[in-house]
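Bench log, entry 3. Co-assembly request; chain sequences pasted below exactly as received.
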Amino acid sequence: MKKQGLWSLRLSTAALVLIPTAVGINYIGKLFAGLLKLPLWLDSIGTVLASILAGPIVGALSGAINNVIYGLTADPISFIYGITSLAIGLAAGILFYKGWISSWSKAIVAGLMIGLVAAIISTPLNIGFWGGQTGNVWGDALYATVLANTHATWLASFLDEIVVDLPDKLIVVLISFGIFKGLPKNVVQLYNTNNKVENLD
Amino acid sequence: MRSISLYTERNTVIHAMDPISKLFYILFALLIPIILPSIKVSIVCVVLGLIFLLVARVFKKTIPVFSFVFLILLTVIIIQGLFRPGNQTTLFHFGPFTLYKEGLMFAFGVAFRVINIVSAFMILILTTKPSDLVESLVRKGLSSKIGYVIISVFQIIPEMMSSMETITDAQRSRGMETEGNLQTRMKAFLPLLGPVILGSLANTKERAMALEVRGFNSKGPKTYLLEEKKYRYSKVVQWGILLGIACALAWRILV
Amino acid sequence: MKKIIVENLKYKYPLSEKLALNNVSFEIEQGEFIGVIGRNLSGKSTLCQAMVGLVPHFYKGAYGGKVIIDGLEVRNYSIADISLKVGIVFQNPFTQITGSKMTVYEEIAFGLENLGISRAEMINRIDFALNLLKIAPFKERSPFDLSGGQMQRMAIASIIAMKPEIIVLDEPTSQLDPEGSEEVFRAIQDLSKQGITVILAEHKMEKMAEFCNRILLLDDGKVVDFDVPEKVFSRDDLGEHGVNAPVYTRVCKALNKKKAGTNDYPVTLEEAVRVLGGMGL
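Structure output for the full assembly:
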């Protein structure tokens, strides 16, 4: 089986239909975190799965559309963080393509890297929008402490974001990798757009 | 079927407006405070947004969103008022803490900007059917496939939620504990996650095939069953908004 | 006139070692009602999907031989092109709903919009399909707000509105309750009366015997038999191919009562009554 081109823009119907499903999985993850009263979001499992299965473009689209939908249905502020979700999809897709999500130990590193990417993208958004906070209680407490002691808004804001993003994305990537490993081969192969029909004549 | 959209049906001028015009207004609300960063301008924008929400008779619907936003803004005001770098002018002391004017003014700036942007989005969200928004965008050139994807999420999520609920109920009726400490709750819900996700991924194959055989990848131009909605004054409103932004820019440069 | 010609069709799914279809050849005339039977994984679904081009275009994999539908060689045309000639209905009524339309009426329009049919023509075709499938009373309902049988009839209507000359139905009643199945079978008979060529894969042999002009028996990806129902169901080796004959045939077989002047057993209730009538039943 030939590996799919990384930046293939030729989206198969299966890959397109994967996007709403990915958004649905994100919703379920969020619901799940809420039910368990976890201090995490777990709302990007679908995005990461879409990236793994169908590449960075589909992953990025899943992330962006996820936030558009969330913005239309629950929380308008989520539109602004669509950029972060898009970056998570891109990062996960590229890391998987480069073989960085191929074992549990590698998935841990990949999870942390994706968390870092999310934090780097979100920090300027937090500064521009909220003046640096995230709205997460623990993160904002850290923000206040760092700000009081160092007077460095950017540092405080970055730490505010990363203290939630690192563990969150780590767990998201591990869950996604676990699900991916449990998928039947014929489902996995469905999203590959570069296969050609072989000739049996 | 349950709806997850916030759209609220009313018969008002705002509801009858072109979704694209509402997008223009969001652009306006985002740009004006950046172009003219004075608190007076922000206040005018906020008042404008609130008037539109009142005219659309959806103000009540904004309360849950605004109360969440206000909660965060309150922490912004406290944290910036106390700790913002560059704080100098003391307003008052309480205990070991000092509240400063600079931080407070900055926080109010943030608050008005946030309320302004949130109001602009709320006007769009509360007064526009998602399907109308997507249809307008597709007619304006958004890929109809992306349009399909967005609209289908609105139907697929409730479907996935209800299958999740069916399984949760089944687990409960089998005596599975779904309340209690983290470990009990983990044990209850973790096994649910797998089947729902796997099932929904397997469904994508069948749905994709069903779309394919209904011409989803057809190359020719598409037609529409529903006639294009005619919105009045769209051009005037949209050009008006652009003119407003241009005036703000001119003001910024010249004055 | 030959509507469908299948010649030495071979197909292997990606990542699979085994041929799902192995040298399948047959021909179907316009207006025929063809039944496809065989055990699970015998190749029924693969064959159905090869008729509309999902095999090989959707799955890729390895393909050999030819499927010619009304003069078009499936391999050389896109699924969208083929969908103008032949439509398909699947097992699960839920996953066939596009999920992008608010009402049954709009749902049926989906394929027509994609094909670029004019509005006036669209409305004509949708009304025709709604009436033929007897779902006009539900046309303003949400597509998800239907019973299984109604949903499946909506799926058929969505295909019929595209005016294919051939319709393929892959176990359309396997996920329905008896009442829903009955509705769908009646609908399929109505389609056949309209002159549409029907290919139906199904496990309910009594229905197959009643409706079909000819039956294609598949096993292990190969054609075992392709003949009138009396011939296929009278075979002694049916069990070896994982298929049960209709209950009427089995009763008559047990009693060794053949149709007068033939070597075949009855396959429908009517025929069985006629043959067994002399026994005072």
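Chain C touches chain A at residues 10-15, 56-58, 60-65, 75, 99 (CB under 8 Å). DSSP finds eleven helices and ten strands in chain C.
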